[in-house]
Amino acid sequence: MKDRGSTSPRIANISAVTLPDTAAVLNVDEYANSQLPLGRTGFPKQGGQSLSYWLQQVRCDALLNHRSTEDLPKEVDTVIIGSGITGTLVTKQHLETWPERNVVVLEAREFCSGATGRNAGHCKPDQWRHFAKFEQAYGQEQAIKILKNENDTWKALVAYVQINQVDCDLWVGDTLDVPLDEEVAKIAKEMFQRYQEAGGKTDHIKVTQDPMEAAKISRIKNAKACYAWSASTLQPWKLTAHIMRANLKRGVNLQTSTVARSVSSGQNRGRKWIVSTDRGDIACDTVVHATNAYSAAIEPLLRGVITPKPHMCNKVIPPRSLSGSKAIQNSYGVLLPDGGLFSINPRCTSDGAVMFGGSNPGQKQLDDWVTRHPERCIDDGFSRVENVTECVREFVENELQGWTDAELGPGEGFDYSWSGIIGLSADGVPFVGELPGKPGQWICAGHHGHGMARIFTAAPGLVKLMNSEPWAATGLPDVYQMTPGRLERLRVAEQPSKVAIV
To answer: Core-most of 100, 159, 227, 403, by most CB within 10 Å?
Structure first.
């Protein structure tokens, strides 16, 4: 790394903290899942939020502040809270299942301005790496089913984009998991073999254990191994917008800048539920909670069960030595010696800007800072957090072949970073189903920083349940189901299960 003097990195104008030593793991320990104290929640930040790269690209799009009607309807059949990929897909399936019913979608801010519009642009199915952790938490059968479902989800997303010719910068190719340390490589090899022995499908994964060959394939200098399988990157806002535009043509009522505050009994209005917003009340018979990280702010049952946490993404403009025909052509999960992870999206089918997400040491420091400042747990106004950016800078300068001696001109380098709010699930997997004791209220949330590899099957699965189909019809892992027993167990647990963010 180039010498940058003695200036200490800082988080939101707060001096950085010293990280404790962490064991080398595959991002499956609590390092990558700094669960905030139970019960912490909040509503979407109104004003001052950072603008993701995806949202920067669509500032002229009228869908951002779309309102189908000037006033809120007083009464509808279904209210869907949240306009990200979950709410938008649930709306699509709802319209196809019950075309005669009227639906309102409420969005607290601009259309798709929550986690979907702020992620790093991946749809990367976990195909082996978290098997042992899921097995420990849920047993071998469910662990295998979780990983299979992620691959099914990826296939469903790609098929939708290709069949409908969605303009969303879709890339399909090999994603590479690359351990940077001998111990991490050893654990990765053992994990992979354990998954194989349990009957997990691995014939689609290309494995390279020779470090020299791994470095050649990955273009990462200190690669110790390389695991490659099919995945995608995309512009997530554009995909969601394409689906919502089709929904609008079918009659859905989208209301942006409308904060849903609570859901209460609607018996005195002749409907099951009243959704109260800052613009008035809506009476309805069905409510879908699709707000992910903000779910517990609206529904107190979910406090301590779904917890918000800020997460950073960095946009980097590569130097000329990594542009054009020399541009990076794969997405990555780089497994760091200290237990962290870089997720890398080079946008190689579009503008070539490289997105860095994941849980690097700087993100861990931000997590620790937010723990001490609980009022910031739903703050997606963080930008250019130097601790996180410095970790990205160290990685690219030390590890990416062709970067070390590059001279960065204006417009190149560490361009921008933004924050989004992850919805941590207390047991590491999402909640899909009807809220216990609240007939007609449904949820698909708690995606634990990995929603793009789950929602394209979870959202349609939820609508099947709403249509009185059995859980088996969803094809989802059993452990995703929202049940009274699961909810009660998590609400009384002193510590949440540690299943990591991918």
So the answer is: 227
**Tokens found for residue 237:** 């806002």
3-class DSSP assignment, residue 421: strand
The residues facing 260 across adjacent strands are 277
**pLDDT, tens digit (0-9, with 9 covering 90-100), for 422-468:** 999 999 999 999 999 999 999 999 999 999 999 999 999 999 999 99
pLDDT at 37: 55
> At 456, which amino acid appears?
F
Instruction: Judge contact between 428 and 497, C-beta under 8 A.
Output: yes
Confirm whether 277 is domain-assigned: no
> CA-to-CA distance for 101 and 255, rounded, in angstroms?
17
Q: What is the pLDDT of residues 43-78, one digit of tens each?
A: 999 999 999 999 999 999 999 999 999 999 999 999
Q: Is residue 158 situated within a structural domain?
A: no
Average pLDDT over residues 266-270: 85
Specify if 375 maps to a domain.
yes
Query: In the beta sheet, which residues pair with residue 78?
Result: 103, 286
Write out the E strands in 322-373: 331-335, 341-345, 354-359
Sign of CA dihedral 137, 141, 142, 148: positive
Residue 348's nearest CA partner among 231, 244, 441, 258 is 231
Q: Is the pTM of this model over 0.85?
A: yes
Tell me if residue 323 falls in helix, strand or coil.
coil
Task: Please count the structural domains in the chain.
Answer: 1
d(CA 133, CA 446): 18
Looking at the domain assignment, is residue 492 inside a domain?
Answer: no
Q: What domain range includes position 361?
A: 171-232+307-425
Please report which confidence band the pLDDT of residue 497 belongs to, taking 50, 70 and 90 as the band edges.
Answer: low
**SS3 (DSSP) at 14:** strand
If we measure between CA atoms, which residue out of 174, 192, 178 comes closest to residue 230?
174
